[in-house]
Amino acid sequence: MITLSEKEKRAVAAIVQERIDEHLGRFPYARYPVEPLLEWHKIFCDPASVQPETIKKALGWHFGGWQRQSLPSAISRTIAVILKAWPEFLPVASSEPQEVFRFWQGQLPDWSTGFSAAAFLLHLQHSNDFELVDRHRMEAMRELLQETSHSENEASRSLEFTDLEDYTSFFRSIIPKLPYKEDSRVKLDRFLKAYGNRHAYKQVSPDFRTIEPTIRTFTWDGLTSERFRMEQIVGRANCDVLFACLLLSLEAGKDPTFKFTVGEIADYIPLGTAGICNSASYHYAMIALFGEQRGRDYFKLDNPLLRPLFTEQANQSTRDMKLYLKHAEESLSINSKYLIKV
Length: 342
Known about the structure:
Oligomer: single chain
């Protein structure tokens, strides 16, 4: 098991802090929402009670396919093998973690994806013993250890059970050295995922940035506001949810402004807001948000031609999903009917 000196721990933590903003600025938050993972920790403690659909959703999340209809073929095959082998796994589920790992190692022929799947299932079943790990996180650990000239950095690349132990030891030795308090665990996990996969962004524009949603879950039940007339929101579609989340965000931030640009509105309610993580569903909702489909009147746009344009696009089966981004600089204001007069 990897053991770091205090000097090495501080050195790794310093690198993380130096680079974390750059890499979290591109982290795909909507692909990895925290809320379902926390729920799965409870469910997978009893493997016999886990339904096939839950297994499929959890593994899809782990491979970056949350709320997506399709996954790459290699990942889909790995998930199919796990679902087929689950009844055979149940008698082994109560065994020692190493035996569980070996079971999946024997079942999954494509170990390039199989390792990540097996490691994830072990994490779900034994989250107190194993951190969330995959090949990207393993690669990030190796590179950071190499950069700090760790004397034991001869880590195997065969992806064995000992790698899970090494990663968990590494991860938990760095957390106390970070300054993010209760957010240190999540931030470190996301950084390692993004850093180990940073080569995937080589062709992406340097200006590309992601925003973490401030409102990740939402319910209409008991919805109240001191500044906005929430009862005026009649619809219950995704675009109506996004508008409600916008108002809640403005109230929480005590932002007195009611004049914005389309782009500023999008920044307040990014992909992943209210659990809307499917990009197609989100983009459609954003187009409908600025139009007047079904009598919606959330905004007063300075350019009178835009509302009909957004409405037309929302009503079409094939639409320009990035229409609102093309008009990011257009100015608008929130319709006064949704404001509580003081």
